[in-house]
Design brief:
The protein is mainly α. The chain contains 2 helices and no strands.
């Protein structure tokens, strides 16, 4: 990869990693929820609705602008 794209590449990796970390956190939340539900079933307790499970996505505005500026600089 040419050196002129190294910073753009780095920013894109950071952007992707942020979302992968968010996805990993969501998967952990789901697994924790399912484990809790399993315990409730074993104890004969009522199940909790899963509507509170939400995937939170973190996006740094400064990173987006940086990527956009670097792409514009290529053209």
């Amino acid at each position: 990869m040419p050196d002129q794209y190294a910073e753009l590449h780095s920013d894109c990796i950071r952007f992707t990693n942020q979302h992968l970390q968010d996805l990993g956190g969501f998967v952990n939340d789901v697994l924790e929820f399912l484990e809790d539900q399993q315990k409730r079933v074993m104890l004969g307790e009522n199940l909790i609705p899963a509507d509170y499970l939400q995937m939170r996505i973190t996006t740094e505005a400064q990173l987006i602008w940086s990527i956009q500026d670097r792409i514009r600089a290529i053209d």
